[in-house]
Amino acid sequence: MQSEIDGPGETDSLKQCISELKAENNKIKAENIELKARVVKLEDKQSQNELIKNLLSLPVVIMTGILKPSFHVYYSKQLNQLLRSIKIDTWRRPTSRKHLLSLEQASSIHPEVEDLLNKAVGNYIKQKERQKMKPITSDCETSLRQENEELCISKQVLEKKIEELLELQEQYKSRGVAMTRSLEESGEKVSQLSDSVAFFKSIIPDTKKAIASAEKSIDLLENRCQNLEDIISVKDRKIIALVDQILSKMKHNDVTIEPEIYSSTHERKLWVKRHSESEHDLETQKKYTFRP
Q1: Which of these, 64, 117, 276, 290, could form a disulfide with 78 (CB 3.0-4.6 Å)?
Q2: Which of 26, 247, 31 is nearest to 151 (CA)?
Q3: Which intervals of the chain form a coiled coil (predicted)?
Q4: In this predicted structure, what is the pLDDT of residue 232?
């Protein structure tokens, strides 16, 4: 479960790692391009130095003409493809003692000049192609190999991570199917509950009516009970009065003295009542004599 939770975070870290590797690779490529440019500049300087050495060995007049190449406009296409040092070197060749061409001949349209310029262009193009294929330095090769090894290791790690992510994706898919099923089952339960709620809502008015009717019946019963209690209380008072009258008429018995044995249940209740009244009524205490 924890690996599933950390899946998006690991994906972000992998993306960040890939971007960092790409940035480092681009940096190395830029350094390689810069080194190649430096090599080209050094080779140009070397060729210029060689040309200067050769020029210094020539007479002053010839050297002045050689240092200022003046090819014919007809050869502009070839000249636009060459560096200045190569132009000077190519200009020097037909005007040297070996070729025996005058400055005027070299400045005009001449087959030998055209052949030299075409060869110079071809050699320069081949030289640039060789420089592209030429290894830069041993240090750069070592660093590039190390970078390639690190990239291979990173690639393997990324492949493993991708496999793990694919497995997580499959797990998510299976869980999605299970969740879909559970949602369908929940939907059925919800529909059943909705039906039950609708049924209970439909019987609510009848239930309210039944409750109102029951409350009315309860009120009526309470009123009847109260009436019965009032009637019972009145009858109790009448009975007590009658008993008192009967006892007062009995001459052979002193009704103010509590007997040791009660003649009836009614007499016992009567004396219990007198006991309770005597606790709050002094007249009752004076009138009756109670057993301890």
Answers
A1: 117
A2: 26
A3: 11-45, 148-175, 204-238
A4: 92
For residue 133, the model assigns a pLDDT of 64
- Which residues of the chain register pLDDT less than 50? 1-5, 58-61, 63, 251-252
pLDDT for res 139? 61
Show the CA angle centred on residue 145, arms to residues 143 and 150, nearest 5°.
95
Separation between Cα atoms, residue 85 and residue 51, nearest integer Å: 8
Question: With contact defined as beta carbons under 8 Å apart, do 143 and 28 qualify?
Answer: yes
Structure token pair of residue 58: 């020539």
State the pLDDT at residue 251: 44
CA nearest to 155, candidates 6, 26, 22, 23:
22
The span from the CA of 128 to the CA of 206, in Å, is: 101
How far, in Å, CA of 19 to CA of 24, rounded?
Answer: 9
Token pair for residue 157?
């790690």
Q: What per-residue confidence (pLDDT) applies to 218?
A: 92
Q: Give me the pLDDT at residue 23, please.
A: 84
Predicted confidence at residue 53, as pLDDT, reads: 59
Res 138: pLDDT? 57
pLDDT score at 252 = 46
